[in-house]
């Protein structure tokens, strides 16, 4: 019984810690419980990567997509159209064309990027 009391006391102490909300979010993200990073969203490491993997096959100067989504200024100027299209919102052409909607995390990252003022 004495050992159970010690174990309980140790477990109780080890579970008490103080983290702020951002630290808890980052821990959750790094542990794989939530793999969507909406804190460190920027153009060069987040948005351009999503565009390269999902969009620029059709939206580049050599393709017939109509917009060169490899250019930051074009992406910024068309952000509402891009978000509407990748979200498959009514009134927008769903993108990727003939494909599934991008996952919610990527869509959220575009929205966060816009809300933060397009960090590069």
Tally of strands: 0
* Mean pLDDT over the full residue set: 81
> Which bin fits the share of residues in helices?
40-55%
Shape: globular
Number of helices: 6
Describe the protein's architecture and organization.
The protein has 120 residues and is mainly α. It is built from 6 helices and no strands. It has helices at residues 2-14, 21-30, 43-54, 72-77, 79-86, 104-115. α3 crosses α6. The N and C termini lie far apart (60 Å). Mean pLDDT is 81; it is low at 8-20 and 24-31.
Brief descriptors of the model:
single chain, 120 residues, mainly alpha
SSE diagram, text form:
Elements: H1 2-14, H2 21-30, H3 43-54, H4 72-77, H5 79-86, H6 104-115
Condensed summary:
With 120 residues, the chain is an all-alpha fold.
């Amino acid at each position: 019984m004495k050992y159970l009391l010690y174990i309980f006391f140790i477990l109780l102490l080890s579970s008490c810690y103080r983290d702020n909300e951002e630290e808890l979010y980052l821990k959750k993200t790094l542990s794989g419980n939530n793999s969507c990073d909406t804190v460190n969203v920027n153009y060069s490491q987040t948005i351009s990567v999503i565009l390269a993997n999902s969009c620029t096959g059709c939206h580049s100067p050599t393709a017939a997509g109509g917009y060169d989504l490899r250019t930051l200024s074009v992406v910024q100027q068309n952000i509402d159209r891009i978000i509407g299209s990748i979200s498959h919102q009514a009134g927008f052409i769903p993108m990727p064309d003939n494909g599934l909607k991008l996952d919610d995390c990527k869509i959220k990252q575009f929205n966060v990027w816009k809300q933060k003022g397009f960090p590069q």
